[in-house]
Amino acid sequence: MYEKLLLTRAERRGIIVFLFLLFIVLATCWYVARKGRQGGEVVPVDSTFFYAQKQDESVVRQWKRQNYSLVQVIAAERLKRKSWRDEPVSLHSFDPNQADSLELRSLGLPPWSVHGILQYRRHSGRFRQSSDVARIYNLSDEDFRRIEPYIVIHQDTTIHEGAYKVATVVTEDRHPGIEKYQPGTQINLNEADTTELQKIPGIGPSIARQICYWRSRLGGFTSVSQLGELETFIRREQGGTTLRLDAAKLASWFYVTSDSIHRIAVNRSSLDRLMRHPYINFYQAKAIVDYRRKVGKLSSLTPLRLLEEFSDADIERMTPYLDFN
């Protein structure tokens, strides 16, 4: 039986030739595949690539049509995924016993410190003095020193009379313990903090925080009528969150001054910086950067009126927030 398993010389030669030819075929396939990869564009296959395909396929298709590389698309998507360090910071007086996560984040605190403060309140009750905040184990000494001057511990839920030098106030039953301004009072919409905003009839803690949040996103209000845009922005950026705000009714309580507007250096800012403003989308920011590269500095937005990315309304509401120096 063993002799039946032995191969003749011709059979052994045939097997050797077959293996040699198989090796040549596999080596050829490997060489062709390698040349193809070297000739084409190397695309990093990472989570950002799949994010770009899944979340914004229309942007990918449009950029491909304009002969931009997929690597540039991935870079643009990565810029849009901001970290917590890129969020606007608005230092203002706050009560750590009442502030929610949104207000704490607006102070520039990292997510883990915000979580620690909320956990402390949940398990230990309340902060009784400002030094108690320093006990939060994941709050750095640097962050504590930065927010310490703004910590206000209310012994109860009542805001003490005389905290602000304004017109006399009356108590409204809708918000027990919160003193409300008397009709005819006007406050600066760009300088009022959440505590002062809550003294306006019709504004509670949630609306006051949202007004401060969007004020920091915009860089300040240029008109009281911008309160009417707040509901749309909240719904778009916070996943369908609804906000009951009667902007027309609240307009008589506020005035604005232009000296407190934070403007963007349009001739020096990067694409990412321009895109952070709620009034400037990706295509508009890119058009500005492209114009600067091809033509030079902008002295106004007038040259961009001919571009389809800009309408007259867009230019009108952007201009107060841009510094052309």
* Order of neighbouring strands in the sheet with most strands: 1-2
Let me know the largest β-sheet. Answer: 2 strands, antiparallel
Shape: flat
What is the tally of helical segments?
15
Distance between the termini: 96 Å
Low-confidence stretches: 40-54, 157-175
Order of helices and strands: HHHHHHHHEEEHHHHEEHHHE
Average pLDDT number: 76
Q: How large is the share of residues in beta strands? A: under 5%
| Total DSSP E strands | 6
How does the helix and strand content classify structurally? mainly alpha
Percent range for helical residues?
40-55%
Rg of Cα set: 30 Å
Would you give an account of this structure?
The protein is mainly α. It contains 15 helices and 6 strands. It is flat, with a radius of gyration of 30 Å. It has a two-stranded antiparallel sheet. A two-stranded parallel ribbon has the order 3-4.
How would you summarize this macromolecular structure in one to three sentences?
The protein is mainly alpha-helical and 325 residues long.
Fold topology:
Layout: H1 2-5, H2 9-39, H3 47-55, H4 57-65, H5 70-80, H6 101-106, H7 111-124, H8 141-147, E1 169-171, E2 179-181, E3 187-188, H9 194-197, H10 205-218, H11 230-237, H12 247-250, E4 254-255, E5 264-265, H13 271-275, H14 282-294, H15 312-318, E6 322-323
Parallel strand pairs: 3-4, 5-6
Antiparallel strand pairs: 1-2
